[in-house]
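RECORD TYPE: inverse folding
INPUT: structure tokens
STRUCTURE:
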């Protein structure tokens, strides 16, 4: 805790939120957040704390760089998660500060001796494995729908569930249209975090169950069967050390048509790296489906390699072939051979033979296709 820190002498300081929750769950704690009761911004600056809060008074400890926020309350005054008036004052109590939080398990605090302060029953809900809202004010912030779903994605393996009364409020937020006021960046930020949790499928199921998915990501929600199939793929990823959170998003979206995937990406203002990998994975899925239908040929394999920009971005090929191996190991073997042979056709060789301009490009494509056909014919012969 914070005993012995001269900068904190005389301050009423509590560790709050996620650090308290996770330490009591036996979950890793990476950051501590602190609330200071009864102090002013001038008090904090006089002790050497650096102000960093834009919308409310938050300070960084000059040595540990942990965040210390002055106790505050919030009052709804507009739409969306930003529509709040913040009131920070030395008269705000710890209980009032904790009351503004979303879930009871996030509304616990510990004093500097480690004693629990739990006015809203968070410890009981931890034991009961329930995600329960602190107060009816839950409905004032639509982002809490996504946060609750994300916590379910994190803790589902521990047996957590969303309390029925909290689920009802999530449905109320979806039905009332408040979710439409969430900005794309915040929706994506929560979704990206959820993709990194142990059970990301729980996030999307929770959003689907309360009606939020149909509002925020309708392309994923349009068919329950397709959604369940997509969620089943989230743990089937290529064997590589790459960006597995991106792979989860790509697998989630690989069944969507190009227009659907583009609309979804634009709505969420998806980072380019995610959009590109989703496109490559969709192309790979189509190739695998054509093989399953008995329609695979050299032209389709070459179009796939062209589509994923394999000739300039060769590092893309092996992970995508690894992805194919999850569904069709023999096809993955054929693709690996086709790629190996086609990659041996080098432009500089053709330049040495006198090919230039359009003739060079045409001959390069022809010989690569020839190499791919040879690989597929070798497969047929086996």
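DESIGNED SEQUENCE:
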């Amino acid at each position: 805790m914070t005993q012995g820190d001269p900068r904190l002498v005389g301050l009423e300081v509590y560790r709050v939120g996620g650090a308290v929750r996770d330490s009591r769950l036996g979950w890793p704690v990476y950051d501590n957040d602190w609330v200071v009761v009864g102090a002013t911004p001038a008090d904090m600056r006089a002790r050497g704390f650096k102000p960093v809060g834009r919308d409310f008074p938050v300070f960084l400890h000059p040595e540990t760089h942990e965040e210390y926020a002055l106790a505050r309350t919030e009052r709804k005054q507009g739409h969306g998660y930003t529509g709040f008036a913040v009131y920070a004052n030395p008269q705000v109590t710890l209980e009032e500060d904790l009351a503004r939080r979303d879930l009871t398990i996030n509304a616990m605090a510990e004093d500097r001796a480690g004693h629990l302060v739990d006015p809203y029953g968070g410890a009981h809900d931890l034991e009961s494995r329930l995600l329960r809202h602190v107060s009816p004010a839950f409905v004032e912030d639509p982002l809490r729908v996504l946060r609750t779903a994300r916590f379910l994605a994190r803790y589902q393996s521990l047996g957590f569930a969303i309390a029925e009364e909290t689920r009802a409020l999530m449905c109320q937020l979806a039905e009332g249209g408040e979710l439409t006021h969430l900005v794309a960046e915040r929706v994506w930020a929560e979704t990206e975090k959820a993709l990194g949790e142990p059970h990301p499928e729980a996030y999307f199921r929770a959003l689907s169950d309360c009606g939020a998915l149909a509002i925020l990501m309708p392309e994923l929600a349009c068919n329950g069967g397709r959604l369940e199939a997509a969620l089943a793929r989230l743990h089937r990823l290529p064997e590589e050390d790459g960006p597995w959170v991106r792979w989860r998003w790509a697998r989630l979206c690989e069944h969507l048509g190009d227009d659907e995937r583009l609309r979804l990406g634009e709505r969420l203002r998806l980072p380019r790296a995610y959009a590109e990998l989703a496109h490559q994975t969709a192309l790979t899925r189509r190739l695998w489906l054509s093989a399953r239908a008995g329609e695979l040929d050299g032209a389709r394999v070459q179009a796939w390699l062209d589509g994923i920009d394999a000739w300039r971005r060769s590092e893309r090929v092996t992970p995508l072939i690894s992805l194919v191996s999850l569904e069709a190991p023999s096809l993955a073997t054929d693709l690996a051979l086709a790629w190996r042979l086609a990659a041996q056709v080098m432009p500089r060789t053709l330049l040495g033979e006198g090919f230039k301009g359009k003739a060079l490009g045409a001959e390069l494509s022809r010989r690569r296709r020839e190499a791919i056909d040879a690989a597929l014919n070798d497969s047929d012969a086996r």
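NOTES: The two ends are 67 Å apart (CA to CA).
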